[in-house]
């Protein structure tokens, strides 16, 4: 009996040690992950850093045509046709992509912009704020890493970015037009309930019918 108690105590102690070891490994892994994420963030190169709310004009090129937009008060309008009802949420998605671009690497020494597809950019994006105009030139894709080359108008540095900021500006005006609410208010169906007083058949009481006959 005494031996069984000792074995039980040993097992409980081992279980506690295993739990403590698991907790320790879990927290260590979490700390390491946080350090790695912090390191990656620190190594990222900030290409553009603008507040979306500060942007007053925005443009990009689609199929050779420049689509430009202007913010009037709190609403965006399409410069090509101000009657178009712009989908603010869809446009803001594009603004978010352009206003906070980060790069994984940069190239400061090169011979020719053509090596990066920046002699004739695939797209040119502009963002205007009260502080000035930011121009973003998007070049070609690196076939090995699948990343893209990008350059801003105020710098000779070429940045290496992922596909999100490079390929996201492919929305047509139709894509950015607010859609009508598909759910229409259904017309109220006429009530099928019929007034009971209109349809009820009045059946005379038998005693009343007898009395009526006797009085005749």
TrEMBL record:
Residues 76-179 form the DUF4340 domain. Residues 180-216 are annotated as: Disordered. Residues 183-198 have a biased composition (Acidic residues). The chain crosses the membrane at residues 9-29. The keyword Membrane applies. Keywords: Membrane, Transmembrane, Transmembrane helix. Pfam families: DUF4340 (PF14238). InterPro entries: DUF4340. This is DUF4340 domain-containing protein. It comes from Roseburia intestinalis.
């Amino acid at each position: 009996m005494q031996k069984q108690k000792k074995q039980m105590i040993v097992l409980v102690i081992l279980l506690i040690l295993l739990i403590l070891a698991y907790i320790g490994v879990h927290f260590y892994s979490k700390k390491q992950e946080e350090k790695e994420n912090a390191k990656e963030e620190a190594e990222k190169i900030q290409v553009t850093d603008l507040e979306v709310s500060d942007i007053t004009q925005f443009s990009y090129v689609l199929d050779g045509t420049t689509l430009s937009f202007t913010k009037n008060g709190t609403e965006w309008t399409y410069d090509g046709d101000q009657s178009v009802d712009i989908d603010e949420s869809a446009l803001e998605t594009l603004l978010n992509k352009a206003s906070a671009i980060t790069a994984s690497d940069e190239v400061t020494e090169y011979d020719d912009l053509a090596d990066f597809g920046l002699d004739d950019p695939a797209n040119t994006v502009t963002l205007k704020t009260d502080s000035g105009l930011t121009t973003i030139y998007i070049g070609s894709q690196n076939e090995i890493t699948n990343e893209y080359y990008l350059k801003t108008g105020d710098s000779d540095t070429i940045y290496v970015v992922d596909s999100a900021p490079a390929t996201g500006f492919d929305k047509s005006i139709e894509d950015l037009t607010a859609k009508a609410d598909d759910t229409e208010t259904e017309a109220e169906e006429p009530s099928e309930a019929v007034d009971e007083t209109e349809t009820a058949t009045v059946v005379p009481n038998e005693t009343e019918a007898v009395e009526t006959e006797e009085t005749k």
